[in-house]
Structure to design on (1500 residues):
C-alpha cells in the first residue's frame, strides 16, 4: 500500500474504490543526545506504513523536511521556510487532486509543522474560494493528524513517563523511532536528567541558548524499544480512528 | 498611547523606557445575521486601546484584513491569502524591529489568523536562523494573544451562554462589538436558534453549504451591550496579564 | 455605510442597487514634529466616512499600512514593500469582485502609495489579460483618488499656506487630521520654519539626511482645527465628484 | 559608449571617471495601424545612443519588454506583469550597483512603465531601508526620464500636431521610430482620423473595445521621417539636461 | 552514515573530519506498466546508502518529490513546480551550509530534475554574487551526479539491453529498483515491446498522448533483480568516483 | 520579419499562415579582454535576423539579459536570477500563446541560460498540467536552440581553432560578434594564450579567482571578421534546420 511501490495502473485501480491517501510528514532536526535527526519523519512514516498495511490505505512518500528553523543551531538540522513548505504542500495536494484523490490525510510527526500545514490548507482552499485556482477539481478535504497527540498515545506516554515525557526529543518519540530503527539506538546519560522547559517560538541561536542539548522538558533516556512497540500500536489505533472519521464523517 | 496619534518624537521617547508594542489584528468577514463584518477587528482594537490607555502601552494601527477565505461566499468578506498575510506581518515586524521594538504582541480577534501568525513568526525567525535576514537587529520576541481565548473571557462566556456561545459569530464577540459600536446593534431572530457545528477547514462554497447563515454553533441573539462591557473588562485583564508575562517572563 | 458596521445581509442588499465601494488607504509614517504617525490613514478615512454618510456609498475598512520605506529611519514608521502592498490590494480586489463589486475606488492619503496602487491595478488586470486569472468575474474598474490632490483642496491649501504647504507633513493634512482627532493636537515650533525641499526617491537613511525632522518643504505650524474642517468639506466635494465620474462616466 | 560594445576592461576604465549609466526601457506592443510594435523600445534606445555618442555616457542594453497587459488583445504585444518587471529592474540595479555605478538613469519610452519603475525603485530602496538587502553597496540613485515628456519634445509635438498628437500611438513617437527605422515606414489611412480618447487602466479585452484600432486620441498619419529627426534633437537635449541634473544636482 | 540515524553530536563529530554530504533526490512519478512510482527516489537512495556505508560519507534524507509535471496525467504522480523545487533546494543548501558543510553532492535519479537542480544552484550562488545572501557562510560547492548516466552504468545498460534501454521507465532503473524492493517486482507483458521514442518537453496531456503507457523507448520487461545488483555495483563505483573528484579536485 | 518593425495587423496576417516565432535570448556579461559585453545577445540576434530574412520567420525582440551571476565580479555584467528569468520567459510565452503562436523557438547565445530555459518551460507546462494555468490556450511547443552548439558551427570551430576554441569568450562567438559589429573589434594580446579550463558552477568571486581575465579555455585572439561571416552561414543553416524540425516534426 505504499505509493512508491505501486505502478500507475495499481493506483488507478485503487482510485476506483477509494479516494483517500495518507501523506507522512516529518522533519530533519536534532533530537537531543540520544534521539535521531530523523525522528520526526521516521515516526509518522512507521505509523503510516502500518496503517496502510493493516487497513489497505495508500501511503504517499514521506515529506522528510519540515519547518525546523529554530533547530538550525544544531548540526544536522535541515529546515524549509514556512513559505517553501506551503509551496510543497500545495503542489502535492494539487497533484493528488488531479488524479481524483478527495481526502488527503497528513500524518504529522513534528509540532513545528502544524501551523504551516494549516496555513497551506488555507492557501490551497483560497485559490478556489477566490476563483482563480484549479477550478475543475472536485471535492477536496485536507487534515492533519499528529501521531504524538492521539489520545491513546498521550495516555501511554503519561503512564510511562509522566513529567519526563517533555515536548521535544520526548521519551515517546525516541522510543518509537528506536523500535523502527533498532540498529540506531544510542545510550547516553542526560544532564540534567530532565531538560529545561520553555517556548520554541524564537530563532535558532536563542533556541540553543534556552535548550543547550536540544531537549525540551524531556528525559528520553527512559525510552526503550519495547515501549516503542507499544507506541506503535497506540498510534496506529489513534491514526486509523482519525482517518476513518475524516473519510466518512458521521 | 495609539501609535497613529503620536509624533515620531513621542515614539522615540517611548522607546527609551519601553520596547514592547501591541498590534491588534482582526479580519473583515461575515458574522451571521446580527454580527458585524468588522467584528474580528473591532474587538481586539477595543481591547488593545483600553490596555494601552490603562497601562501605557503603545498600540499600533489595527490590521483590519485577515485570513478569511472560507467566508468569501458571503458578501462583504475580504480575505488575504496566508502568503499575503505572512508578507504583511513580516514587513510590520521588520519595520518595528528597526526602531528598537523587541516585543511585538499581536492581539488577535480571529481564529482563522492563528496558524498564519505562527507561520509568519517562523518565516521571520527563519531569515535570521538562516543567516540572510536583517542581521543587525537585536532581540526579537513575537507572540499572539487571542482575546477570545483568555481564561476570564472563557469563563464569562460559559456562564452567560453555555453551549450557545459557539465558535463563529459567537455571542461573546457580538456582545463586545456592540459595546464598542452601540450604533450598529441589530436585532435579528435566529433560525435555527443554535447554528450547526462543524469544521471551517474548507473552501468558501463548502463553508456556506455547511453554515447557511454564517454562524457556527452559536446563538448571538443572546448578546447585549451590557454583556459586551463585561467582556471588555475580562479581556483587558486577560490581555494585560499575557502582555506582562510576555515582556518580563519570570 | 461602513462595511465594518454592516452584516453580510446588508451588504447583499446594497449590492442589488449599487456595485461601487470606497477603500480608504493610507500609511503609518512619521509626519514631522507636530504631525501624527497616522495622518495619512486618518485623513482619507475621515473623508471616506463623510462621503459614505452623505451619499450612501459603502466604505471598506482602512488600509492603514502603505509604502513608506523612505520614512523608516524615523521611529514609528511601519512600511510594506511594494510587492507586499500589491499582494494586499490584489486580494482585496479579488475578494470584492467575487461579491459583485464592479468599481473599487481607492481614496488615498499618501503620495508614496500612488505608483504601487497603479502597479497593483495592472497586476490584477494582467491576470485577466493573460487568461489565467479569476475568469468568471465580470466588469472590473479600479481607480485611485488622492484626497490631497483634488482641485478644491489644492486651491484652499494655496490660499491658506502658499509655499508653506510643502509636500510631506503638509499644513493641509496636519489640519485635517487635527480636525478628525482634536485630542491629538500638538503645538511645536518649527526650525527652520519651512523645511527643506527635495526628492523622496531614496532609502531611509538618505531621506533622514535630507529631511532631518521629517518635513518636506512645509510649515505645518500654520495648521489649525478650523482649517481642518474646511479641508474636510473641500475634500468631500472633490472625492464625491471623482467617485460619480468613476461610477457613471459620461 | 554602448555597454554591449565594450569589454569589461573598458567598463572598468569608465567607472574610474564616471559612475552614471543610461538604461533604455521600452515595451513591445501594438501601436495602431502605422506604428511599429517596437516603437516604445526603438525611441528611447535611439535617444540614449545619441546621448551616449555625443556626451560620452555609457548606455546599457535596451529592456525591450515592459508592462503592456492592456495591449494583449492585439497580436504581437508581449507584456511582463508588474511583479516580473520589478524583479528584472531590481536585478539590473543590484548588478550595476555591485560594479560601482551610483546613478542609474532609466530612459523610458512607455507610459505604462512609469508606475512599475517607481514601485521597483521603492522595492530596491526598501531592501536597504529594512536592513536586509545588499548592504555593502554605497550610494544609489535611481530615476526615470520619459523621452516623450520632456519640455522640448512636448513643445514640438504641440506645434506640429496640436490635438492630433494623442496619448498612444502618438504622432511624435511614430515619427521618431520612422526616423530610426526608415525601412519600416507604413502609409495607412486612419479611420476615424483622430482616435477616441479615454483611460487605459483596464484589461486587454476592455482596452480593445475602447480603442478598436489601438490608437488613443492620435492621428499618426501626420508623422514623417523629417519630423522624427527634429524629435530626436529635441529629446536628446531634454534627456541630456535631465541626466546632468540627476548626476550633479545643484 | 545516514543523517536520519545520527544524533546532532555525531554530525558535529563528522563535520570535524569531513564537510561533504550526499543528498539523494528523486521523483514520484509513473514508470510504466511494471515500474514503481517510487523508482526515481528508490534508485539514488539505494546507491547513496551503499556509498555511505562503504566509504563513510554522510547521506541526507531523500528528496522524494521532483519535477514531474509531464507525468501528471498518470495516477500516482506527484510533482513540484520548478519554482517550488528551487526553494526546497535553496533551503536545504543554506541549512547545510550553516553547519559547515562545504560540498553538497546531489545524487539524482530523475532526468527531469537536472535543469531545475542547475537553476537552483545558480539561484543560491546568485544570492552571494549579488551580495545580499547568506554572506557569513564560507566555501560552497554544489553538484549533481545522475546515477543513471555514469560511465559504468551506461556501459552495462548498453551491454544488457541495447536499444531497449530507452529513456523513461528504462530497463536499468526498473532492475535497480527491483533489487532494492524485491517484494514489489511485477511481471507485465509490454505492448508494443519497445515503447515509442520522443521528447518529454510538453504538458501532461500531451505526454500521455505521445507515450500511452508511460514508457519512453524502453522494454523494461527485460529487467531482473540480478541485473539490478550489477547496476548497484556499477553505480556505486561511478558515484564514488564522482564524489571524490568533487570533494578533492586534482 | 522583425516583430519590432511590424504593425499588429501585419502580425495578424502572419498568424494566419504561420504560428511559429523565434525569440533570440542572450546575456550581458564580460567576454574577456577582446570580447564584447553584448556578445551573447548580439550573436543569436544576428543569426535570428538572418534566418527571419531568408526564410520569412517572425523574430521577437532580443532578451538581452540572461543568467550571468557567475560573471558579476567583472564590471559590466548584468544578471537576472534564475527565478526572475523564469518569470520573464513565462510572461513572454503566455503573451505569445494568447495571440495564437504555438511554437516558440528560443535561439540562445549563452550556455548559462540553458538550465533556466528548461526550468521555465517546465514551469509553464506545469501550470497547464496542474490545471490552474491559462487553460483556454491551445497547443504549445517550446524549445531552445543554442546557435553555438549546432553541428556545422561545432565543425567549423574545431577546424579553425581546435583546442583554443574554449568554453567562454570562445574564438567562434568573438568572431561572429565582430562580423556583426565590425566597429567594435579590439586587438588585445592574450596572456596566457589559452585561458585556464574549469567549471563555472560557482559564485562570482570564485569564478574570478578561477578565470582571472574572464576567458575559459579559449584564445579569442584567433578570431576574425572573416571567420565571423563563416560562422553566420553555418549557424543560420543549423538554426533553420532545427526550426523546421521543431515546427513540422516528421
Amino acid at each position: 500500500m505504499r505509493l512508491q511501490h505501486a505502478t500507475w495502473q495499481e493506483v488507478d485501480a485503487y482510485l476506483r474504490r477509494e479516494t483517500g491517501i495518507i501523506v507522512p510528514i516529518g522533519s530533519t532536526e536534532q533530537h537531543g543526545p540520544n534521539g535521531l535527526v530523523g525522528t520526526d519523519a521516521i515516526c509518522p512514516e512507521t505509523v503510516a506504513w502500518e496503517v496502510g498495511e493493516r487497513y489497505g490505505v495508500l501511503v504517499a512518500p514521506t515529506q522528510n523536511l519540515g519547518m525546523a528553523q529554530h533547530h538550525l543551531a544544531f548540526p544536522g538540522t535541515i529546515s524549509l521556510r514556512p513559505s517553501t513548505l506551503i509551496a510543497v504542500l500545495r503542489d502535492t495536494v494539487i497533484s493528488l487532486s488531479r488524479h481524483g484523490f478527495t481526502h488527503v490525510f497528513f500524518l504529522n510527526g513534528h509540532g513545528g509543522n502544524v501551523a504551516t500545514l494549516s496555513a497551506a490548507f488555507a492557501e490551497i482552499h483560497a485559490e478556489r474560494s477566490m476563483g482563480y485556482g484549479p477550478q475543475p477539481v472536485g471535492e477536496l478535504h485536507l487534515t492533519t493528524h499528529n501521531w504524538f497527540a492521539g489520545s491513546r498515545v498521550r495516555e501511554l506516554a503519561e503512564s510511562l513517563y509522566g513529567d519526563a515525557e517533555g515536548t521535544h526529543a520526548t521519551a515517546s518519540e525516541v522510543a518509537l523511532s528506536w523500535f523502527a530503527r533498532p540498529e540506531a539506538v544510542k545510550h547516553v546519560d542526560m544532564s540534567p536528567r530532565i531538560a529545561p522547559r520553555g517556548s520554541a517560538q524564537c530563532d535558532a541561536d536563542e533556541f540553543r541558548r534556552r535548550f543547550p542539548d536540544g531537549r525540551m522538558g524531556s528525559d528520553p533516556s527512559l525510552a526503550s524499544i519495547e515501549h516503542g512497540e507499544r507506541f506503535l500500536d497506540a498510534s496506529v489505533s489513534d491514526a486509523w480512528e482519525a482517518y476513518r472519521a475524516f473519510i466518512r464523517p458521521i
